[in-house]
Design brief:
alpha/beta; Elongation Factor Tu (Ef-tu), domain 3
């Protein structure tokens, strides 16, 4: 038996059902009647069905990898930020437009070890896999989110009850999300984190110092999603792994550092 939900073979053409602006982000919803429900922390490869790559003589864009924000019945939601031509094109999609979908892919989060309270830590669009995981865990999970400014912090509303830090102090605590995490590390907790590599490295280091288990949803450039292209290989203490099949969620204890990983603008922790 597989330890993950497996994607059907090949990509599927689905229809966009929702386009909503949430501060600096876009929430894109679609109907996926022929795909299985994803595990929290898994991801999909997305591509617009039309206009995916520019002019007649230009190559099409590679699909973009996105963690699932939420899933209910045959409905899937993703959150994205316009950081380049690929994410900009996806952000232009409206209800009724076609969307190529491949997934669910990768390994997601696993439940906390016995007796440990889950603490979810996110940065920017790293809120995506934490939202679906919070839905599965329930309201007892503590959620700590960090953003650049007030416009980005509007995204915190996607996970009700989250405590917020902003770089400029415009919302919540002024400083880093790890400032909010540090006081919690004296408890019996398990940390789940997703965000940019510097944030994940700070979480990894803090958890290692306090001997708190942590699961990190990492970012890397992905081209295929099936482990064939080796474009998302990252080093661990036990050798190299492919994030698209061995991750994107990895145990923090298997990593020496996250700072050497290269972030990719299309991933949501994978963003």
């Amino acid at each position: 038996m597989s330890d993950r939900t497996l994607a059907p073979f090949g990509r599927r053409l689905v229809r966009v059902t929702e386009h909503e602006r949430v501060g600096a982000y876009t929430v894109l919803g679609c109907s996926d009647p022929h795909g299985p429900a994803p595990d929290p922390g898994q991801f999909y490869m997305l591509a617009a069905a039309a206009g995916w790559g520019g002019g007649e003589d230009e190559r099409p864009f590679l699909p973009r990898a996105f963690s699932v924000l939420r899933s209910q019945a045959d409905r899937r939601e993703f959150v994205l930020e316009d950081v380049g031509p690929g994410t900009r094109r996806l952000g232009e999609l409206r209800p009724g437009d076609g969307l190529w979908l491949l997934g669910p892919l990768g390994r997601g989060f696993v439940p906390p070890r016995e007796g440990r309270t889950p603490v979810l830590v996110g940065g920017g669009v790293g809120i995506a896999p934490l939202a679906i995981w919070r839905d599965a865990l329930g309201p007892e999970a503590l959620v700590l989110l960090g953003f650049r400014d007030a416009e980005h912090a509007i995204g915190a509303g996607l996970i009700p009850g989250a405590r917020v830090a902003t770089d400029d102090g415009s919302v919540g605590h002024q400083g880093l999300v790890t400032d909010l995490l540090a006081p919690e590390l004296g408890g019996v907790i398990e940390v789940y984190a997703c965000g940019p590599p510097p944030m994940l490295e700070a979480v990894r280091a803090l958890c290692a110092e306090h001997r708190a288990p942590a699961q990190l949803a990492l970012e890397a450039g992905m081209a295929c999603g099936f482990g064939a292209c080796f474009g998302c290989v990252v080093p661990t203490r036990d050798g190299y792994v492919r994030l698209c099949v061995d991750g994107p969620v990895l145990e923090a204890a298997t990593l020496q550092s996250v700072t050497e990983l290269h972030s990719h603008p299309a991933t949501s922790g994978v963003r």
